[in-house]
Write a structure and sequence with these properties.
CATH topology of the largest domain: Arc Repressor Mutant, subunit A
Helix content: 25-40%
Largest sheet: 4 strands, mixed
Structural class: alpha/beta
Order of helices and strands: EEEEHHEHHEH
Number of strands: 6
CATH superfamily of the largest domain: Winged helix-like DNA-binding domain superfamily/Winged helix DNA-binding domain
CATH class of the largest domain: Mainly Alpha
Shape: globular
Strand content: 15-25%
Distance between the termini: 34 Å
Strand order of the largest sheet: 3-2-1-4
Length: 156
């Protein structure tokens, strides 16, 4: 696994690649994968190019391959998250229903929390049933900022 770092408009971000896919995106305060070697690859450079374009409001859909590790249920949730359109949100219950278990809202929350590639898999687009912003590994301020960016509220 190769991990690269870059300063972005949302702070320091790390992106890890293994086997030709992005496996981790880490914010400044996250624990880095232990087995990672610091370096850079063509794929990590492309991942950062896409992150920068997204944060500039110029990219709505990521095309880098991702390979997040997780349970089959987590994988199902992450696939659902990838279908949430740019600038829109779903509730944890909406995602649980889409995953086939309307009672699994807590499990959906745990899958969101353990999403190893936030932003690429847009877990920030999942909100509480009352419309409140709840739970985001990068912090609620970043979640709000990403949603505002997608809704065109922030000045670029």
């Amino acid at each position: 696994m190769i991990i690269a770092f870059q300063q972005t408009t949302i702070g320091r971000v790390a992106v890890a690649e293994c086997g030709g896919a992005i496996t981790n995106l880490c914010f400044g305060m996250d624990t880095l994968p232990q087995q990672a070697e610091i370096g850079e690859t063509e794929l990590t450079r492309e991942a950062f190019r896409q992150i920068d374009a997204y944060l500039a409001g110029e990219l709505r859909l990521f095309s880098v391959p991702v390979a997040p590790a997780g349970t089959p249920f987590m994988q199902r949730v992450w696939e659902i998250l990838r279908t949430i359109p740019y600038g829109t949100t779903l509730t944890y219950r909406d995602v649980a229903v889409a995953a086939g278990n309307p009672l699994a809202t807590r499990a959906v929350g745990m899958a969101n929390n353990r999403n190893p590639v936030p932003i690429f898999i847009p877990c920030h687009r999942v909100i509480g049933s009352n419309g409140a912003l709840v739970g985001y590994r990068g912090g609620l301020g970043l979640k709000k900022r990403l949603l505002e960016l997608e809704r065109g509220i922030m000045s670029r």
